[in-house]
């Protein structure tokens, strides 16, 4: 069935599974962090670059599900990804060439559109405003 899906359908399917995994865990703090970081990540990627945006998430230890999802998705879609299967996306970005960075950035931004939409739909009960 996956062979007959468009790339955008495959993005949606993968993003849906990730959001459902976060939802099924049932932890409000994990759902809140996932939603907030997913919504902010595309702007961070555009303004600072993919590597900087991923480094920020790792430095703050934010949204491990989101980082894992991006690593998995880019590993599936960008076959020229440097590093071994399972390596963090940040490592692949740092060790990769400019072609990998360009492809990974474009694919992350396209994939994140689905993640953000599904997170908004599934986590409607969670405010978009970060608690202080």
UniProtKB/TrEMBL annotation:
Which processes are annotated in GO (biological process)?
defense response to virus
Localization annotation: Cytoplasm
Q: What is its main location?
A: cytoplasm
Keyword Cytoplasm assigned to the entry: answer is yes
Keyword match Cytoplasm: yes
Q: Which UniProt keywords apply?
A: Antiviral defense, Cytoplasm
Pfam families noted in UniProt: Cas_Cmr5 (PF09701)
InterPro entries with a match to the protein in the record: AF1862-like_dom_sf, CRISPR-assoc_prot_Cmr5
Show the GO cellular component annotation of the record. Answer: cytoplasm
Q: Family assignment?
A: Belongs to the CRISPR system Cmr5 family.
What name goes with this protein?
A: CRISPR type III-B/RAMP module-associated protein Cmr5
């Amino acid at each position: 069935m996956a062979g007959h899906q468009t790339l955008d359908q495959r993005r949606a399917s993968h993003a849906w599974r990730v959001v459902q995994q976060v939802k099924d865990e049932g932890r409000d703090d994990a759902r809140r962090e996932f939603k907030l970081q997913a919504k902010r990540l595309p702007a961070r990627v555009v303004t600072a670059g993919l590597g900087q945006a991923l480094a920020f998430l790792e430095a703050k230890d934010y949204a491990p599900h989101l980082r894992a999802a991006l690593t998995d998705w880019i590993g599936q879609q960008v076959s020229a990804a440097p590093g071994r299967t399972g390596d963090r996306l940040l490592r692949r970005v740092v060790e990769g060439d400019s072609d990998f960075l360009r492809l990974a950035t474009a694919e992350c931004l396209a994939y994140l559109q689905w993640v953000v939409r599904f997170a908004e739909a599934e986590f409607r009960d969670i405010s978009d405003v970060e608690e202080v």
